[in-house]
């Protein structure tokens, strides 16, 4: 057990568990990034509901949302960290794990602040269906991300996370990785999107995605319909081109927008103290 508030110790233990030789591409990193994103990405700006506060994915309503299939792996990876640092809230742990994973996979340093609560406020629970559906197009992406308060540029920057990890047929129905080295953060996703020819492929399960095969590559690479919507949309596309050509700019913008993502729904005063986590004594909701 570490001293309460020793986030450096937590960061160290998260970094230490990333290497998982038996899992996927050998790293827990990508699925931890997805956990941070899905825990935050239910936010609705207008009604101030959803978001990472409350760590609602522990419960069936949110955890059992088909959009969250597979994220139990991420939560299980983090249980050893939670056991050792029991003072940290799950909501803080899940968001911090994404931030640490990006950095450890050679990505940018992302600013992160503690203070999320695990208290579940029933009036803030998001309904299912707030996360994006990869089978759709630009209008859908805008509908989902504008609801959280993101701009077109921020949507494209965030999408660069698909440089990491892969799709699993038994989770989303899609299959494969976006890049050849999916455990290293870079702007390759944008570069491949622009430079390769993507062919439609209907998988055996009926799911439609786009693929490209390079002779020297280990496996066929993929793009979701939503990924390629970034290319065909005139307002998204210039940002794809910018990030493909300027890795530093992508890293800087991604760091800023990911920090914004994990702060959705968290209200702080000028000193950074969280204002809407005052129900800590309410403990866990069952
Ligand atoms: Zn993803 N994402 N995502 N994403 N995502 C998957 C995997 C990962 C969409 C989507 O449908 C999917 C963002 C935006 C969007 C990651 C991070 C971020 C998968 C595959 C799908 C289907 C899931 C599976 O089968 O395991 C759509 C439609 C998005 C917006 C339009 C944003 C924003 C992200 C972070 C900032 C990551 C890291 C993965 C890889 C997970 C893994 O297990 O390897």
- Low-confidence sequence ranges: 281-286
| Domain tally | 2
Q: Order of SSEs, N→C?
A: HHHHHHHEEHEEEHHH
CATH class of the largest domain: Mainly Alpha
CATH topology-level fold name of the largest domain? Peroxidase, domain 1
Shape: globular
Proportion of beta-strand residues: 5-15%
Number of distinct beta strands: 5
| Average pLDDT rating | 95
**Level of helix content?**
40-55%
Bound ions, cofactors and other small molecules, one mention each: 20-OXO-protoporphyrin IX containing ZN(II)
The end-to-end span amounts to 25 Å
Q: What's the gyration radius in Å? A: 18 Å
Count every helix, treating DSSP H or I runs of 4 or more residues as helices.
11
What is the makeup of the main sheet? Answer: 3 strands, antiparallel
Describe the structure.
With 286 residues, this protein is mainly alpha-helical. The protein has 2 domains: 7-131 and 258-282, Peroxidase, domain 1; 138-255, Peroxidase, domain 2 (Orthogonal Bundle), CATH 1.10.420.10. The protein has helices at residues 7-17, 29-40, 60-63, 71-84, 90-104, 138-148, 152-159, 188-195, 225-232, 237-245, 247-261, and strands spanning 166-167, 176-177, 199-202, 208-212, 221-223. The strands form 2 sheets. It has a 3-stranded antiparallel sheet with strand order 3-4-5. Helix 1 (7-17) crosses helix 5 (90-104). Mean pLDDT is 95; it is low at 281-286. The structure holds 20-OXO-protoporphyrin IX containing ZN(II).
């Amino acid at each position: 057990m570490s001293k309460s508030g020793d986030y450096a110790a937590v960061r160290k233990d998260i970094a230490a568990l990333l290497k998982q030789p038996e899992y996927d591409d050998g790293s827990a990193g990508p699925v931890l990034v997805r956990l941070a994103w899905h825990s935050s990405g239910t936010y609705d700006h207008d009604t101030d509901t959803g978001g990472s506060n409350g760590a609602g994915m522990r419960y069936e309503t949110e955890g059992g949302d088909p959009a969250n299939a597979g994220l139990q792996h991420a939560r299980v990876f983090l249980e050893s960290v939670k056991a050792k640092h029991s003072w940290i809230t799950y909501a803080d742990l899940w968001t911090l794990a994404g931030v640490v994973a990006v950095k450890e996979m050679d990505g940018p340093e992302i600013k992160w602040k503690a203070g999320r609560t695990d208290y579940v406020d029933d009036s803030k629970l998001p309904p299912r269906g707030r996360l994006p559906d990869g089978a759709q197009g630009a209008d859908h992406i805008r509908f989902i991300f504008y609801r959280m308060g993101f701009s077109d540029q921020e949507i494209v920057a965030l999408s660069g996370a698909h440089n990491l990890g892969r799709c699993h047929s038994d989770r989303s129905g899609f299959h494969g990785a976006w890049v050849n080295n999916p455990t290293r953060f870079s702007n390759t996703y944008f570069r491949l999107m622009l430079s390769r020819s993507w062919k439609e492929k209907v998988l055996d399960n009926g799911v439609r995605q786009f693929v490209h095969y390079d002779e020297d590559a280990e496996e066929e690479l993929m793009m979701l319909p939503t990924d390629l919507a970034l290319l065909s949309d005139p307002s998204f596309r210039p940002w794809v081109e910018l990030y493909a050509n300027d890795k530093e700019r992508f890293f800087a913008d991604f760091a800023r927008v990911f920090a914004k993502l994990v702060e959705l729904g968290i209200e702080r005063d000028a000193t950074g103290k969280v204002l809407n986590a005052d129900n800590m004594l309410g403990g866990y909701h069952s």
